[in-house]
Structure formats: structure tokens, C-alpha cells
Amino acid sequence: MCVSEEFGPRFFGCLLNLWLLPLVCGVGLILNIGCLIVFFSTRGHPLVPALIFLSFCDCLQLFFSFLVLFLPALHDFSQSTPYSTLGQLAYLSTGLLSPLLLAFNCASIWTICFISIQRHRAILRPLSSISSPSKPFKPLLFISAMALSFNGCKWAEFRWFWSHDPTNSSDYQYILAHEPSDLARNENYHRVLDNLLYPLLVYLVPLLLLSVLNFRILTNISNRRVSFDHKSRFAQERRSVTLLISIVTMFFLCHTGGLAYRFVDQEKYNNSELFVLLKDIINLLFNVYSFTNPLLYFVFTRQFRDLRTMWNSHFASPASRSESYAITGAKPGSSKAQRHLSMPSLYRTPCVSGKLLP
Q1: Extents of the domains making up the chain
Q2: What local confidence, expressed as pLDDT, does residue 233 receive?
Q3: Which of 291, 294, 297, 331 is nearest to 24 (CA)?
Q4: What do you get for the CA distance between the two ends of the chain, in Å?
Q5: Positive or negative torsion for Cα 246, 252, 253, 258
Q6: CA nearest 107: which of 55, 57, 32?
Q7: Which residues, at least 6 apart from 110, have a Cβ–Cβ distance to it below 8 Å?
Q8: For this UniProt entry, which segments traverse the membrane (predicted)?
Q9: Residues of the chain with pLDDT > 90: what percent?
Q10: Number of CB atoms found within 10 A of residue 221's CB
Q11: Which CATH number is 15-346 given?
């Protein structure tokens, strides 16, 4: 399919969306499901509930990315009509699932922030976190509810309607299509959501929080005097901090493009094939982030052995526990014209003319 494309940005976009993206999503799903199996087998660890929730969000993000990004791209490069089955699936995936994709992405980012706060509290105030919370999933459910509420307005950016195929005389050849709503065209709405709230709540504040908390944790561990008997626990602490720092670094590398995109004049560059390719790369990096997290868990917890060894000392005496704390791992399509939507504008969607809506 990509062979028929002229060598250039659109050719590379075809390779990226039809080959590389499914590979990243598929392998990432397998890795995160493997992490879930391991985490469920070590549920006694105090931060495992957050790790389970984090891997669950990563799984759903990778799954919805396949539907929201791959299906419209497949429809685009296969040159199918919008009234085909593939065209209908492309409409439904972009209009119904893209807000959920954004919500799970937000939830995973906020969860890594929650885990960093928990670790910061355990390292600097060990006596305050001797006992595990009775309802460990309660704050995680609150995070998921906030993520859905924050991205729920994305559904209002679509106006749905039934569209009849003008080339078909049959009265039954209809598809359920969508176009940008009045809210999606409102400049004040985009200015508040895309240029203020999203950069602050999903990028700048989490990045600042993760950087400060993990720097304080690393400083505290580096300055601590450790006896010979506690050197192995000290090494576990350093591995856990290295894990978090690695995740913060990946967060910066994979999400900075999405932040910069929100401040670009989309109407000015929407007809540029190179701009379309850059948006495809940004979407791929979001999934690379979820793909690499299980690899980081595996490497920096000694193939997950730290999760088991640290639990053995979790209910030790306060004196011994001050030298050892809970280990954690966390994480805090296309033709020349694109839809003018805030975040869903990153996604391909068909229209009744066979091209993407402006």
C-alpha cells in the first residue's frame, strides 16, 4: 500500500502509521499485560495498586491508539470511500474513542505524580507510612474520574449527523459521520483549554513535580549514611530512583512535541504534508512512552525481584525501615487537510468528499 505513495512525507507517514505504530502498540500491550500479571502476583506491596492502575492505563492507551490512529490511517492510504465499512469505523473511532485515549493518557501521567508523592513521603517521613492504606485504589479512582472529566468536553467538539452516499441511489446507504461543532471552532475555548489548562495540568505541573520530588529523593538517599547491613537496601533505593528519573526523562522526550503542537497555528500549516508527518510522529511518541515503561520496570527492579524483596522489610521496625522503603515503578493519520479540533485534530478522520475535513 505504501509503495503506491510518492517518496516524501506522505510515504514516510504511511510507513509510520501502517507498520511502525501497530508494532509499537502490539508489543507495548504484551509487555504491559506481562507487568500486570507480575504486579497481581505481588499485591501485598504497598505501591503495587498504583503500578497496576498505571499499567492498565497504558494498556488502554495503546489499544485505543490502534483504533483511533491506525484505522483512519488505513482508510486514508487505502483510498476507500467514506461510505465504506472502513470509513464508518474511522468516523466512530475518532469521534467516540479519541476522548477516552486522551483521558487514559492524562490518568497515567497523574498516576506517576501520585506515586512520586507517595515515595517522597516514604523516604523523607518513613514513620508516617508504616502501615498501608486501607483503600489503596480510592485515590486512583479519583484520578481516573478527574481525567475523564477533564477530557469529557472533547465529545462536545463533534457534531454528528447521518450522511447519504450521493453516488448510491439506494435509500439505505447512510453512514454516521461527524464534523467540528461550534465549540470546536470557538477560539476562546481553544485558548483556555489548549494553550492554558492542558499545558499546565498535563505537562508543566507534572514535569515540575516529578523533577523536584525525585531530585529531593535522590539527594536524601545520596546524603544518607548506610551501614554495611543495609547496603543492599540502599542499592534498591537507588535503582528505584533511577527508574523514576528514567521515566521522567522519557516523559519529557515523548510529550514535549505534543505541547509545542498546541501553540502552532494549525490553519496556517494544515495543508503541509510535512506538518502532517510531524503530527504522526507526535502520536507515535505518546505510544512509545507507554511502550518503554514496562522495559524500565524490568531493568531497574532486577527483573521485578525488588518488588518482592522490599516487601519483606516493609513491616520491619521503624528503625530498620528508615533505611528501606517501598520500591516503585511508574510513569508520573493523513492527507493534506486536517480537522480543526484541539487534541483530536492530531487524528485522521474521513469526510463525505473522501478527504479529511478542514
Answers
A1: 15-346
A2: 61
A3: 291
A4: 25
A5: positive
A6: 57
A7: 143, 146, 147, 206, 332
A8: 19-40, 47-71, 91-118, 139-162, 196-219, 240-261, 281-300
A9: 29
A10: 16
A11: 1.20.1070.10
Measured CA distances, 240 to 112, 177, 180, 228, 236 (Å):
13, 48, 45, 20, 6
- The answer, yes or no, to whether residue 147 has pLDDT greater than 90, is yes
Asked if 201 and 103 count as a contact pair (C-beta separation under 8 A), the reply is: no
- All three cell numbers of 358, joined, read 478542514
- Amino acid letter for position 298: F
Residue 318's pLDDT is 36
**Contact between residue 212 and residue 220 where contact means Cβ atoms under 8 Å apart:** no
Q: Which long-range contacts (CB under 8 A, 24 or more apart) does 350-356 make?
A: 350/72, 350/75, 350/76, 350/82, 350/87, 350/90, 350/91, 350/177, 351/82, 351/177, 351/179, 352/82, 352/83, 352/163, 352/177, 353/82, 354/81, 354/82, 356/76
Res 358 pLDDT > 50: no
Q: Which of 78, 96, 99 is nearest to 87 (CA)?
A: 78
